[in-house]
Amino acid sequence: MTVFCLGSINADHVYQVPHLPAPGETLAASAVQTGLGGKGANQSVAAAKAGSVTQHIGAVGADGVWAVDALRGFGVGVDHIRTSDAPTGHAIINVDPQAENAIVIFAGANLDQSAVDIQAALATGGAGDWVLIQNETSHQVDAAKAARTNGVKVAYSAAPFDAEAVKAMLPFTDLLLMNEIEAAQLSDALGVKTADLPVAKVLITAGAKGVDLLDTKTGEIVSNPAFSVDPVDTTGAGDTFAGSFVAGFEQGLSDVDALRRASATSAIQVTRVGAATAIPDAAEVEAFLSAQ
């Protein structure tokens, strides 16, 4: 079985700053770290480190060979990553001492996907497989339709939030992942309650308050509290959760076990600086859970 991920690939430049900059303010950073990021790349790495066979579908520029190599090094399949004429995407991330961040993203090659390549990648999937999609690339709906054609289930991480993008994806989505702010924005935009959305399951994260998984057919809600940790950098925490959780579904874990493992994975990740590079492997997560 496989987790596919149509997703962004970025170079993350993470700056440790005394506070998030105000308009017109120039700040001196105390440290900088550059590494692999992008919501899609983070999700792929999380799924692979959780133990799922993972195939990334995406694009980089000619300057992005290092990013493809990094994904490969994390155990992610890279055969479906194309080289674009556009530069590789990148992000400027400011992180304050309370682990809050402010991020500027340049999409670059992430918006230069190929419908033909996406369809070819998902044609290798089938029943039991999942594809994880978010809003940092083009061709999300194409990917969802191709997945459904081949029996692949669709998990959609509705971020960065765009109401129109979500509306287009809902008819092809099996699992919708949002944070509590995005869920409120979607309810306002569509004029419907979360429980009435036309998807089988909705996962809503609420940071330190934990996470809820709603079955829209039965109305059942499965919850998991957040683990108590001292965060250093929250960049990529939601992506880490999403990738780990979908991997749990692909591996046949129960809702409760998938939520617990994903919560532990993101809890460990935020205690480290960086995004993809900070994601723990399965052994670390199991050790963490055993100690709880």
What does this structure look like?
The relative contact order is 0.16. Helix 1 packs across helix 7 (237-250), helix 3 (115-122) runs parallel beside helix 4 and helix 7 runs antiparallel to helix 8 (255-269). The chain is α/β, with parallel strands linked by helices and 292 residues long. The mean pLDDT is 95. Strand 9, helix 5 (163-169) and strand 10 form a beta-alpha-beta unit. It has one domain: UDP-N-acetylmuramoyl-L-alanine:D-glutamate ligase (3-Layer(aba) Sandwich), CATH 3.40.1190. The chain is built from nine helices and 13 strands. The longest helix is centred in the C-terminal third of the chain and has 15 residues, at 255-269. Helices cover 32% and strands 26% of the residues. Strands 5-4-1-8-9-10-11-12-13 form a nine-stranded mixed β-sheet, sandwiched between helices. A four-stranded mixed β-sheet has the order 3-2-6-7. Pfam families: PfkB. It is an enzyme of class 2 (transferase). Substrate binds at residues 10-12, 38-42, 136, 239. InterPro entries: PfkB_dom, Ribo/fructo_kinase, Ribokinase, Ribokinase-like. It catalyses: D-ribose + ATP = D-ribose 5-phosphate + ADP + H(+).
